Amino acid sequence: MAYSIAIERTSAPKTKPEVSRIGFGTIFTDHMFMLDYETGKGWHSPRVVPYQPITLDPAAKVFHYGQTVFEGLKAFKTADGAISLFRPDMNFRRLNRSNDRLSIPPLDEELALAGLKTLIGVDADWIPAEEGTSLYIRPFIIATQPTLGVAPSRNYLFMIILSPVGAYYAEGINPVKIHVESDYVRAVPGGVGNAKTAGNYAAGLKAQEEAPQGYSQVLWLDGVHRKYIEEVGSMNMFFKINGKVVTPALNGSILEGITRDSMIRLLTHWGVPVEQRQISIDEIAEAHRDGTLEEAFGTGTAAVISPVGELHWQGEKLVIGGGKTGELSARLYDTLTGIQRGTEPDPFGWMVRL
Amino acid sequence: MAYSIAIERTSAPKTKPEVSRIGFGTIFTDHMFMLDYETGKGWHSPRVVPYQPITLDPAAKVFHYGQTVFEGLKAFKTADGAISLFRPDMNFRRLNRSNDRLSIPPLDEELALAGLKTLIGVDADWIPAEEGTSLYIRPFIIATQPTLGVAPSRNYLFMIILSPVGAYYAEGINPVKIHVESDYVRAVPGGVGNAKTAGNYAAGLKAQEEAPQGYSQVLWLDGVHRKYIEEVGSMNMFFKINGKVVTPALNGSILEGITRDSMIRLLTHWGVPVEQRQISIDEIAEAHRDGTLEEAFGTGTAAVISPVGELHWQGEKLVIGGGKTGELSARLYDTLTGIQRGTEPDPFGWMVRL
């Protein structure tokens, strides 16, 4: 189905930054995609417009009741000069699952993808080509009705903004040290932990801030028993124990990561056994003690893989794999980034070419 | 201490609505208060300006990570024509507790109160005088830094907007029917349930939407054991059982309501025993069965008291007090609204005159 997406081009293109100097999500491209929703009328008026501030009533529900969802994915300039997206259908499907949990009306996933492709086409020369770089894509929906009653909004705005990002590992893939959080809780079954919504991230800032010096992220334990592993920072978590890979099962309180799914499929494809189940921090500490904890890593869109070199748990420091990147972590990282850049075969048809 | 608050008056005052026709939080006054924050500079530039849309970068952190807090309180035109606020110091103190949980820099509570008083002075003729009406006050803070890294913002905006509200009980105080929620969870200790932040409200919309027909609000049970009473909708909950009043203790996952505190102090002042403790839904069902459950009510700024005439719990309907407003609920409502309107003595010095 073809969609009619209006395009208004900027008359004042910005100067593009030097890729080596850009961080994450600080520079935005020349255009953005917008789509409005109004009860009774549905989603309407898809358009690409110059990147610009948005104007909202101070009573807009997003400011007060946090009715908002978002996604994060990437576009790549491949080795042969083409532009491709990594599994964008998965992101828009998850966006609709988040919408459902947040009482936001569902989006036409094909229209969202068409909007994204149109936007990327307009801003194609913003996609960096250097190894390890990409164009980070942030679709999001905010509730805009300006009334203070606690009820779902009658108006929404769906937007996509784009940000060129430099290499996550400028000096090679590097393990991080993680603090296992025992005071704060990220989410609990019955809550919104498996939705990609703003409140989950606001809730996590304090723990990050209070983590001991040197620990860049926190590992969340479940909110009921306070012992089962949930996520690390905003990444899913994997452990390699005695030749097997284990990762927390999708239990309703962790995010259904698309990189997580991709890792599981790659590992299965390679014949590496993967278990999705409950994993307690005690099991990890025990595997560390008896020498069977071989690797640990987080997975997410931004870093792809973040090897964990040390876990800090109740005063104890569990050094994993000598604090170095494990072999399997490196292989997963190289394979997935290779698929994304078109230098490795894509056996699952994950890449969508523009 | 005197603060220098700039005032810019509107050149186009709006027509004031008929009070009988205004709902909750849909009409706003002619002006609003603003205060900016920048890391290194602190909170600065307090000002009253015409009520108007605000302009934000689409990457502003509030849209993506929900770093935001708010408050709700009321101003009244008292029987003698004066303007007074109900316990505003409590709201700004709680705002700072919420700020701490959400990694937002603390606000000067006296400056916030001075800003509120200045704003209300400018919009004084917007305060309705009819019995049961008031001016609803919504202070809130949003994170405005336009970057997508998950970290506390370096910029914030504190605002106060005002909304005249009609009588909550236009036809006399009226009990509500409440559905006891058994699937969704509002909050859990270690989370943000005791902070007044947007994400808590977004998380609750779905349960409200899915509650059976006829039940206007849900009663939340705790997220760990799924049996202890937390809150009802966005109100604190009280029960009168066998002559004693019980209300859930402040356990870290329920909001520390200012109306809740006021009710406890009034009851204690009257010699009615009040217990703040864990209360299971089974205890309530048992008290209902043996005839000792005399009254139930929610408390909050908007309604003051919302008597509960029926609880719906796992298919069973617990009708309370014959579905009518209880004597104690009515006395609490009459006394507190009388204090607010200046027709009853104010033994605790709660009202702050402008």
Descriptive notes:
The structure is a homodimer of 354-residue chains. Chain A has 2 domains: 162 residues, D-amino Acid Aminotransferase, Chain A, domain 1, CATH 3.30.470.10; 165 residues, D-amino Acid Aminotransferase, Chain A, domain 2 (Alpha-Beta Barrel), CATH 3.20.10.10. Chain A is 23% helix and 31% strand. In chain A, helix 2 packs across helix 3. Chain A is globular. The first copy, chain A, has 354 residues and is of the alpha+beta class. The longest helix of chain A has 15 residues. The mean pLDDT of chain A is 96. Chain A contains 7 helices and 19 strands. In chain A, the strands form 2 sheets. In chain A, strands 1, 2, 3, 5, 6, 7, 8, 9 and 19 form a 9-stranded mixed sheet that branches. In chain A, strands 10, 11, 12, 13, 14, 15, 16, 17 and 18 form a 9-stranded mixed sheet that branches. At the A-B interface, strand 4, helix 1, strand 8, strand 9 and helix 4 of A face strand 4, helix 1, strand 8, strand 9 and helix 4 of B. Strand 4 of chain A pairs antiparallel with strand 4 of chain B. Chains A, B: Its cofactor is pyridoxal 5'-phosphate. Chains A, B: Belongs to the class-IV pyridoxal-phosphate-dependent aminotransferase family. Chains A, B: This is Branched-chain-amino-acid aminotransferase.
Brief sketch in words of this structure:
The structure is a homodimer of 354-residue chains. Chain A is an alpha+beta fold and 354 residues long.
Properties at a glance:
homodimer, 354 residues, alpha+beta, D-amino Acid Aminotransferase, Chain A, domain 2, 9-stranded mixed sheet, 31% strand, globular, branched-chain amino acid biosynthesis (chains A, B), transferase (chains A, B), Branched-chain-amino-acid aminotransferase (chains A, B), EC 2.6.1.42 (chains A, B), L-leucine-2-oxoglutarate transaminase activity (chains A, B)
